[in-house]
Amino acid sequence: MDKFTKVTGVATPLMRQNVDTDLIIRIERLVDNVGRDGLGPYCFEQIRFRPDGSENPDCLFNQEPYRGAPIILAAENFGCGSSREGAVWALKGMGIKAVIAPYFGDIFNNNCFQNGLLPVALPIHEIEQLADEMKASPGNARVTVDLENCTVVSPTGRVIPFQVDARRQHAMLNGLDDIAQTLSRKGEIEAWQSQDKAARPWVWL
Q1: CATH 3.30.450.20 fits 6-174, yes or no
Q2: pLDDT at 83 exceeding the cut of 90
Q3: What SS3 class is residue 65?
Q4: In terms of C-beta distances under 8 Å and separation of at least 24 residues, what long-range contacts does 147-156 make, across chains too?
Q5: Counting C-beta atoms within 10 Å of the first and last residue's C-beta, which end of the chain has fewer, N or C?
Q6: What pTM was estimated for this model as a whole?
């Protein structure tokens, strides 16, 4: 998993409620054999593209300066719906490194931490103000998401704290998914196994 420490960039104000995983990536794309690294072009395709495959000029993701932006601002319940991990893969493939929303679908939230995409929970009024600041100076405005200090810095310099579980913070800062975190304690695990085999050999038959 990629390490996440800090990202600074344009934040797309996708101020929609209940952005579900089907909108993020359609289920058909997950069976098209494009692989997890090939999902980026299909992320949000229902709103990014017209039925004929051409870009939808009304979609913020197709407008400057939001094209290729690494941060999304959203309203409540981002990532709700089905549990497809491909939604996180698609967002990462599109270049998204952090999503800021009031709260997230539970499974989507867990999948983010397993794949190095940071979900940041902030009150809706803070996100609306971030969106207003982005729109006020779209060519120059930048948002910083700092995981080490658990802060979001707005385009006008406001510092907004956020909370994240300490274990998950450590894992993302060091690029560790659950398997990697377990393997980091391999020595302790093997020592316990050796001790337990000596004490209860019948268990290991």
Answers
A1: no
A2: no
A3: coil
A4: 147/4, 147/5, 147/6, 147/118, 147/172, 147/173, 148/5, 148/6, 148/173, 152/100, 152/120, 152/122, 152/126, 154/129, 154/130, 155/130
A5: C
A6: 0.88
